[in-house]
Amino acid sequence: MRKRATAKQVAEAAGVSKWTVIRAFTPGASITEESKRKVLEMAAALNYTPNLLARSLATNSTRQVAVFVDDFANPQKLPFLETLTEQLQAAGLVAMLININNHFDHVNALLHADQRQVDAIILFGTAFRDETLTDLQLGHGMPQMFVLARDSQIDGVPAVVCDAELALRDIVRHLHERGYRRPGFMSGAAALSTALRRRQHYVEFWAEHGIQNISLLSADRYSADAGAASVRAYLASTPADERVDVLMCENDILALGAMDEIRGNFGLKIPEDIAIVGFDNYELGGSYGYGLTTYEQPREEMVRAVVGMIKGTVEPETVTLPGRLVVRSST
């Protein structure tokens, strides 16, 4: 194999400066088409590709973005991650995926990201204590942080979220118009600083319709098994004439597990005995076997906003975007 050329060698061969070579390989950099063409042709002839590590030392930017994720059991994470990595790569950035778990918590993750000098950190649906920032004492040089798909209650950390208030108002209005009067709500894994606020708005909007008694269920994580276990415990302990007539689950994965349990082990009909609502519009929920009524988050727009903040083309501030109600046979 031929030895890889340097930027200086390409510059000399193309008759341009070294900085012109660097600009030719920098997305969005100011350079004439003729200069870029000459540089790229000579780079191909000399087997040159830019050394990103060396460039990061010169520009003080690694173009890496750390993405923290803590609930991989939720398959709805995958479409978001696909969109996020696609848009980051289109912007010349690369995602560093960090799994938050019992053995590698936020403290370890923050230190890991800081040591690798990432340009930004995205808290993707993770529960995060703002006291952690103080405890770490990483200083003012710490990468900018953003919260994606949950509210941020951390000072100075903007969030990009689906408008939970609008979403739950639309959902409750739909359910009330369909005649449901004994609502329930199933929460997922408890969140700390980055809450969803879906249960809060669900309770508030039912109260506006004069209904104060909301049955509250909980699951220990976002998974179909957890949704099934939660509704199983509820149905087993609640007389048939006292059960809810509609159950909203905090996301679609919980809802799908609940639906399988309701029909499979208890022989109940959906929506005749219990109607079900989810959140996220996960693809499987739209299949004939489920027909799940849900709420779709504006995934593309949410990711575009957070990537714009990282690039500096969008003001870094909390952004709340509207989604849409998707009505199917489960209600």
UniProtKB/TrEMBL annotation:
Q: Which InterPro entries match?
A: HTH_LacI, LacI/GalR-like_sensor, Lambda_DNA-bd_dom_sf, Peripla_BP_I
Q: Which domain of life is it from?
A: Bacteria
Pfam families in alphabetical order: LacI, Peripla_BP_3
User: Where is the chain membrane-spanning?
Assistant: none
Please tell me whether the keyword Transcription is annotated for this protein.
yes
Keywords associated with the record: DNA-binding, Plasmid, Transcription, Transcription regulation
Domain named HTH lacI-type is located at: 5-59
**One function term, GO molecular function aspect:** DNA binding
SMART domains in the record = HTH_LACI
Q: Tell me, what is an example of a GO biological process annotation in this record?
A: regulation of DNA-templated transcription
**Keyword Transcription applies:** yes
Question: Under which name does UniProt file this protein?
Answer: Transcriptional regulator, LacI family
Species of origin:
Rhizobium leguminosarum bv. trifolii (strain WSM2304)
Lineage of the source organism? Bacteria, Pseudomonadati, Pseudomonadota, Alphaproteobacteria, Hyphomicrobiales
